[in-house]
Amino acid sequence: MNVAVEPVLVPMLGSARQVETIWRDDHMGSLLVHVTHGPEAPTRAALGCTVAAAAVEAGHDVTLFLAGDGAYLAKPEVIESMAGLGTGKLVDSMRALVAAETPIFVSGMSSKARGVSEADVQALGGSFAMPAKLVELTFEHERVLVY
Q1: Over the chain, what HEC string results?
Q2: Which of 16, 22, 76, 122 has CA 20 to 30 A from 97's CA?
Q3: Model pTM?
Q4: Cα 97 from Cα 103, distance rounded (Å)
Q5: What is the average pLDDT value for the chain, to the nearest integer?
Q6: What's the pLDDT band for 26 if we cut at 50, 70, 90?
Q7: Cα(10)–Cα(100) distance, rounded to whole angstroms?
């Protein structure tokens, strides 16, 4: 969801000519989390989903994009079994993201190469996407994190 917020200009200390744009307190940011790691790097993969879930809980607009080995994170058996070292269980983060109706995109090419089915992706409320969608999402969101 894009929120139209009018920026407020505030003079910075040091020079009256310098100004900094700050957002009103009620503005929550938008975040794209791009996970490219999967079972081969469980801590990195689970951390991306943990951060996405934390951002959703904080009230931010979050989109999750799974690509490369990250596409494996759409498979139910991976979701149920993966846990990162110090990052918790993947199933907890994914449940939170699905419950919040977080937009989830999974690379179609990565999925095909890794045996991720349409039913797997639909179970997350997600959809397949091509690289052009990742580019679009990157420019739509204020911040992008890659794991």
Answers
A1: CCCCCCCEEEECCCCCCCEEEECCCCCCCEEEEEECCCCCCHHHHHHHHHHHHHHHHCCCEEEEEECHHHHHHHCHHHHHHCEECCCEEHHHHHHHHHHCCCCEEEEHHHHHHHCCCHHHHHHCCCEEECHHHHHHHHHHCCEEEEC
A2: 22
A3: 0.82
A4: 8
A5: 88
A6: low
A7: 35
